[in-house]
Amino acid sequence: SQASDSVDDGVDHEVESTKRKKMMLLLMATLFVALMGAILAKGTAAGIEIGIKGGEQEEAHHKHVVSGASGKSGFIIHHINVSGYQPQTMVNASDYIVPGTEDAPPLSAAKGRPYYPILNHFQVRNPDIHYAKTWGYFDFEDPDPKWDGKMRPQPDFTSVPNRDVNNSAFPEDAWQRSPEYMKAFLAEAKKLVNRTIEAVYAEYGVGLAPDGSITLDEKDWLNREKFAPFALRENTADPAGRGGSTSTKASFDGIARRFIHHVMTGDTFKLTLGGHSAAAGHGAGFNQSYIIEAGHVLEPVFAHLGVEMRAYNFAQGGMGTFQQALAGMDLRGKETDWIMWDSRMTERMPEMSNFFFRQALIAGNRAPVLMADSLDPTLHAYHDGAGASIAHQGNGWTPSTVSEEQVAEVPWAAKYLYCARGSTANCPGHQYDAGCWVEREDFKPKNPQGAIVGGQASWHPGNRVHKRRGRMIALIVLRALDYALDKWEELAAESGYPIAEEHWHVTEYYSTIREKAKTVGGCFMNNFRIGQKRRLEDMTEEEAKEEESLRRRLDDTDFWPMRICNVPLQGRSNWGPRHN
After folding, report:
1. pLDDT at 576
2. In 287-415, alpha helices (H)
């Protein structure tokens, strides 16, 4: 009996020991899986900063970066019939005809470029382009077969200000009401936004293609984190980090309202720049200027979401922004959604940027997002005092060029962009690549065309600098769009589709900001003379006298009246873009 008990005890101990070993192996396996998950999660990092606690920045990671892949062999191509989604008539960018161009050839710059408007989420779908096999495509179709190849009914958005229709106006079959449609649409929209962000990173050697075809080593990961740092702060007084782009939580909430509204109503999104000659693209060319480069990235993204996006460069060489701001938003567009000021080289007085942003807010039909290329305190004033959304475009890491041999390994967008100290490469020789004219068979200009674009100078950056800066601006907009799509889902979880009007209507939001903007200080206070020269303090006495002899002399008491700060101004101009 005792022997039997002893044997049974031994068996029990052995069983218990086996159980403990299995539990230990299970625990180790769980820890291993968790560790691998953490390592793989690094694959979705885009190096953005979204919060600050105790002076430290918290890093957030983009979602959906590698989702939807079918392995290194590429994506499964899925075709749908898009013929029923195509617009039937073209529109022109402007109804204005420049005198003397009535007989200009079709599609010439003088004649204008008619285009098909963006009407839905399907018309620009193209899974057959080369990059779709590596980067994926907007693989979205209406989940209800009833609407296959047909556009769903929509309310008359033009019947109310700012397209703010009541939720009850959406027809029963409107896509904005359909949970199935919205779930599939938002999921595909997020993939679109995040792979576009990754594509920008990949241009400079630190991006991840969704099909898994690109791998990064340890050095690449470190450079990736430095490529486009971004801080989303709680308050404007919070630390902003070193040199990266920034915005605030309140700003992103306002931008989310705007973006959700625009997607829901098919509204337009206009990105506008005012500035000096470097911003205008002198030396590089208009279409290579950084705000247009930002538009090259953003326009197709918004088109998939049913939003017609355009970027406008209204910068002027040697002139700055003051004279344009005296026309309010008539010259820059009353429907502007996002406006940037870049004129510190010619307009050093803080009152200049204050006046520019003030008229942008009060003289248009919307209250645009305000952006500058530095931590401009003027932006903080309009954010804290008027509730305007703001953003600052910063800088980040760029691959360096060391020699003519090494540059062959540098990503194309970064070749000769930044020459390291002691570099033997000819970076200045690659600063510009634009010409005045590209030969074409259907049109021969009467006047001889110059070999290079005018305005090449040390203070006018070339196309590579413009491209890099345009990408930084585009990344801010894309991160705000990603934030908006997430918020849309969160709001729908509370109230269903369409989300409550209080979360997407913009009329009251715009008007509140416009009224409060008039109370923000820092505008002209009888300290800016009519006809006053910019940088007068930099002139010699002889130069100042020569300037005065060429212009109408004004009494020292002739100041711009203070009321221009709070009156929505209107105006016209004979200054055309052709000679800028």
Report:
1. 59
2. 290-304, 322-325, 350-362, 377-386
